[in-house]
């Protein structure tokens, strides 16, 4: 079962590739706020408090790969 939506996965794949929120927004054609919302939604789903914790948990769950 997948935890991330397709868009959330795109956002986190770019985030771990060291792109900023602003760069991710431009690449995906969405607003900075929407990018931050996707990140916040994932953190809520995972029950973590920060982006770094979210990345660690997503790697552990095999949702994203480095």
UniProtKB/TrEMBL annotation:
Keywords: DNA-binding, Transcription, Transcription regulation. Pfam families: GerE. Residues 1-62 form the HTH luxR-type domain. Transmembrane segments: none annotated. InterPro entries: Sig_transdc_resp-reg_C-effctor, Tscrpt_reg_LuxR_C, WH-like_DNA-bd_sf. SMART domains: HTH_LUXR (SM00421). PANTHER family: DNA-BINDING TRANSCRIPTIONAL ACTIVATOR DEVR_DOSR. This is Helix-turn-helix transcriptional regulator. It comes from Massilicoli timonensis. The lineage of its organism: Bacteria, Bacillati, Bacillota, Erysipelotrichia, Erysipelotrichales.
């Amino acid at each position: 079962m997948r935890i991330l939506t397709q868009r959330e996965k795109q956002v986190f794949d770019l985030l771990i590739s060291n792109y900023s929120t602003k760069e991710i927004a431009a690449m995906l054609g969405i607003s900075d706020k929407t990018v931050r919302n996707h990140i916040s939604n994932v953190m809520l789903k995972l029950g973590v408090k920060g982006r770094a914790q979210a990345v660690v948990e997503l790697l552990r769950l095999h949702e994203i790969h480095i």
